[in-house]
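Entry 14. Structure prediction run on the chain below.
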Amino acid sequence: MTTGSSHLDHAVQTATVWLGELMAILDWNDRDRAYRALHTVLPALRDHLPAGQAAHLAAQLPLIIRGLFFESWKPDAEPLADRGGDAFIAHIAQAFSQNGDAHPSEIASAVFALLERHISAGEIQKVKQTLPEGVRRYWPPKPLPRATRESFLYFRHL
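Output returned:
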């Protein structure tokens, strides 16, 4: 399916690649579930970052993924009262409460690994330094290989 706009088609294609990569990282075979993971973890991550840092990270996200990140954002709202890892993981667990085989910490780590594949190393370092320790502990200790044209071609077909 094409939209008739090369820019919009590219945005859809890029989002599809990201979902495919996340499915591969999590060893899932369900694109809707991968979408839900992004749609859950990205706003939770955003809400644990200062507004300026969230905006810097979002600037490197592809168009559709950026929309997930910013959905329902209220930059002038009070910061989260509980910025710890328990609240972060509880938010993910609630979104996947119907999936007994979903592990919220693995989902968070997988989305973080996906970000690390596509976002500049400098920006990732700033995000990690800004996150509360309770959330930062879910960042994978060893990054996955950077995204390449070969991974793009592979994941495009999932």
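The chain has one domain: 6-156.
Filed with the rest of this week's runs.
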